[in-house]
């Protein structure tokens, strides 16, 4: 019998699960786990498949949670919303906006599911903002024994901390309660600065607005900066179209990447040869439309979370390494920042964090480039984004996570037989009984 096929968003991982189950109610999740356990199969949950690696792959049961959606209870006064785990961030944003509410911070895309974003330590940018999982105040998961467990800061707080960033290794997250706030607008201010200026005053730049990011084409000595400030000003006419500028930029990079397949070293010439972009004029829009933009071009990305104070040295080392390497990606290196988190497997665990992301066109020629960047970021105390490309194993990861054993104990307790494991997870976390 030919098994069904699963591919991630990037199209870079493929697996053939024995079966794909698309639960619509919690009982179907419980039943699928029982059936898999009885058949000696493993189980992986999958959301929108936006992870760039094999986290969600299995040859057993794939629980496709993308139809397990819905925004439930909305408590405007308390600023809380309860959603089903498979709900996309886009659907959540839209429902919150209709209710006059918003999430405090969101990453660059909203196609991923709430549970997938939690599981991998998804983040946006802003020194005052922890990763997406820090917005969670409670969640429900179905564990390997079929039990449905609710946890929050009072009910089973240790489970809650571990389950906030769990790589899908503790159970299937069916419901999450998140903090939200009254809807707000943001003023977007773009700019360009010498890279060394930003690095010399990195702390000051990182705190210069509620949300900052910079994008750097490594053959250049300047970076494009983006700062977002809360404002009471009205939405700028035509603001809805502005995020498409970023989309067009991505398409430009994608085209340069395609053209560069023949000669990847030509990326700088191809990018510089495209018509120059006019600088982004400042504008105001609803926060959720400012944070994210449509990303239709498929690519591969690597990102590491570094201590924020270590970012300047890491980027200087990266500049040297990339220029020596000589093969560039047509995409910018993206730098973002965030507050510390206390989930044991959060890449932001225990420290204010700078996130350094490299995006490359799909294709084997750029894999070596990813490895070079990974090596530099690892040398600078980087922790890989769980949902992006990396080669780290438990041996590399364990010393980087002070509460590694807290998570390992929880995993051993909840999933002693390794129902929720796969080859990728075994490499990352070790086997359950280690
Ligand atoms: C174009 C693009 C842009 C991105 N931008 C950002 C960004 O700005 N910031 C950032 O931090 N990341 C970003 N990412 C990474 C992405 O957000 C994460 O990898 C996230 O996991 C994707 O969510 P998903 O629903 O697609 O999860 P999937 O890829 O489907 O799954 C990821 C993990 O979550 C687990 N999982 C999924 N659903 C459940 C569930 N219900 N219960 C238990 N475990 C579950 C899976 O088992 C797997 O381990 C981006 C990715 C892409 C493709």
Automatic annotation (TrEMBL):
Keywords: Oxidoreductase. Residues 13-183 form the FAD-binding PCMH-type domain. GO terms for cellular component: membrane. SUPFAM superfamilies: FAD-binding/transporter-associated domain-like. This is FAD-binding PCMH-type domain-containing protein. GO terms for molecular function: D-arabinono-1,4-lactone oxidase activity; FAD binding; L-gulono-1,4-lactone dehydrogenase activity. It comes from Actinophytocola xanthii. It comes from the Bacteria. InterPro entries: ALO_C (IPR007173), FAD-bd_PCMH (IPR016166), FAD-bd_PCMH-like_sf (IPR036318), FAD-bd_PCMH_sub1 (IPR016167), FAD-bd_PCMH_sub2 (IPR016169), FAD_lactone_oxidase-like (IPR010031), Oxid_FAD_bind_N (IPR006094), Vanillyl_alc_oxidase_C-sub2 (IPR016171). It holds the Pfam family FAD_binding_4.
